[in-house]
Amino acid sequence: MGLKCANCGEVSEKWQYLRLMDSAPLKGGRGSATMVQKCKLCSRENSIDILSQTIKPYNAEDSEKFKTIVEFECRGLEPVDFQPQAGFAAEGAESGTPFNDINLLEKDWNDYDEKTKESVGIYEVTHKFVKC
């Protein structure tokens, strides 16, 4: 995920992904966030937190539509790019077959569902960030 410092505009590609379970302490004992980063340019400590209660699945009915699947609390950071990686999961819409550790680096994935005897896949992954 590419992030931009809201204070000075510095863009960092350093953070490839954010883990839901990881938490880093904020300076001065102000709690914690999913990621804390000190800007190289302005030295400001910025953070972004995944609001886990907002995570929603993207289903077959949502195909070819944008849908909010997660919300972030951003303090001094603004997401500007997203490159999906490995670690995604899916379930066969009709069969319930689990497909784990899906790698979306190429923005496409396909497999075969033995229960339905059909090819399954995720194609042309796109994203957009919406400020609230």
Automatic annotation (TrEMBL):
> What protein family is recorded?
Belongs to the UPF0587 family.
Q: What is this protein called?
A: CXXC motif containing zinc binding protein
Q: What lineage does UniProt assign to this protein's organism?
A: Eukaryota, Metazoa, Chordata, Craniata, Vertebrata
Q: GO: which molecular function terms? A: zinc ion binding
So which residues are the signal peptide here?
Answer: none
Source species of the chain: Lepidothrix coronata
Q: Does the keyword rRNA processing apply?
A: no
Q: Which gene encodes it?
A: CUNH1orf123
Q: Which keywords, in A-to-Z order, does the entry hold? A: Metal-binding, Zinc
